[in-house]
Amino acid sequence: MRFTIFAALSIVISAPALAKPVSVPSTALINEDIGIPVFPYDITDRPYRIIGPVKAGVRKATIFSQSPSQRKIYEELWERAQKLGADAVVKAQYGDAHVTAFSWGKANATGVAIKFLPSETVTETKTAN
Fold first, then answer.
1. Which of 26, 48, 81, 118 sits CB 3.0–4.6 Å from 113 for a disulfide?
2. How would you write 39-106 as a 3-class SS string?
């Protein structure tokens, strides 16, 4: 009985620690649908510099698991973009999960990591032309 109560309490206490928070820079735009700065389209109203392409592969745990959600796929893209120092990911695309030699199902995703330009840089560029 004591072991069961102890096990239940340890799960309840550690549950918040299992969920990993996704940090978002204060200068970034946020995709309102998922809460992180990953967009399936290009951002045209704000100047930016391209850092580089980002790729992610999200696997299913078992053959009976559901395919990875758009949110999970976008979170993986965002994690990789953050390591490059990006403010956002644009032109994010992904396909359906497919069986591979090492996975019961894997969805591949790509995007472009970008860094927003400061407003001073934009003003200087406009006056120089």
1. 81
2. CCCCCCCCCEEEEEEEEEEEECCCCCCCCCCHHHHHHHHHHHHHHCCCCEEEEEEECCCEEECCEEEE
Cα angle value 30/60/14 (rounded, 5°)? 70
Domain boundaries, the chain: 24-128
What is the C-alpha to C-alpha distance for residues 51 and 86, in angstroms, rounded to an integer? 7
Rounded Cα gap, residues 110 and 73, in angstroms: 10
Closest CA to 54 of 80, 73, 25, 18: 80
pLDDT, one tens digit for every residue, the chain (129 residues): 554 444 444 444 444 444 444 454 445 588 888 899 999 999 999 999 999 999 998 877 777 777 788 899 999 999 999 999 999 999 999 987 766 666 677 888 999 999 999 876 554 444 444
